[in-house]
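User: I'll paste a sequence; please echo it back and then give the predicted structure.

Assistant: Echoing your sequence first, then the prediction.
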Amino acid sequence: MTVQGSSGSDVRKVVAVIGVLVLVLGFYFLLLGRIAFDLLTSGDIAATVIGLGVLILPLVGVWIVVATVRAALDHQHLARRMREEGRELDTSDLPRRASGRIERGAADQLFAQVQQEWEADPDNWRVSYRLARAYDYAGDRSRAREAMRRAVELEKRERES
């Protein structure tokens, strides 16, 4: 989650909330694990099968939390680099709805501009990052995630070479 224009204390609050949520989920996953262990060791076949099902829940939950936190850290890394390089999309003078979201027509126009940049240089992580942000502003979250994953991968390749 990019918190543009916010103070350091706002960012710390967001990080603190995320930290608390991860701790609560960790406690929940431990409880589920204990319940699964009790069911698995009960000796009853039905309880053992249910225990296996219950054991899968915390394992999947941990995987989801780790993947989400890792993706958020990767996205923040790219956002920081783009900010430092002065390459973030400037949306300050775009018209906005009462909710604060960019008006659809302006977002579509911004997207068309960024899509041209991307078509000219699709293997540049910076352009893929900008494309992801433009997709997000245009309301296409699934393509935004896909473009951001591509930007993260391209940036990692650039760092490694």
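The helical segments are 8-40, 45-85, 104-120, 125-137, 141-160. The two ends are 27 Å apart (CA to CA).
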